[in-house]
Amino acid sequence: MDKIPMTISGHKDLTEEYRRRTSEDRPAIIADISEARAHGDLSENAEYHAAKEQQSLNEGRIKELETLLALAEIIDVTKISGSTVKFGATVKLVDEDSEKEKSYMIVGDAEADLSKGRISISSPIARAMIGKSIGDSFEVAAPGGSKSYEILELKFV
User: Fold this and answer.
1) Residues forming a β-bridge with 73
2) Domain extents in the chain
3) Quick one: fold of 4-75?
């Protein structure tokens, strides 16, 4: 399988989530299942079924995290430089229609979180920015029509 690009902080966050799910959540769910089993008839025991479903979801996420962490290619963005947009870049841009400024860091798929200003390298806006420099304009096809942006700042932190 291909390596998955990831920043140091993204890898740290996923490692912490893996630790929490395996050492805290897993034992708590097992305790919930044991407690629900003690209530008797499992066929009509809502607590038991809810705990088993929670266990299934947690174990699925643990397997996903194991795969992500095993395939991670950790990239130290502080050692990256340049004048064009690439993985790890923090880009400040302006929407040329609304004049609203936004700032995004381009990260791997597994660590993308728009609420933290981290967008996936495979997202349409990131793909449109790759290779561009400060002052360049670019367009992104959006559901509501095409959007135009201009790159104001570019840094690697």
Assistant:
1) 5
2) 4-75, 78-156
3) Helix Hairpins (1.10.287)
Q: State the amino acid at position 64 in one-letter form.
A: E
Task: Give 76-116 pLDDT, tens digit per residue.
Answer: 988 998 899 999 999 999 998 899 999 999 999 999 999 99
- The pTM for the full model equals 0.82
Fold of 78-156: Chitinase A; domain 3 (3.10.50)
pLDDT of residue 145: 85
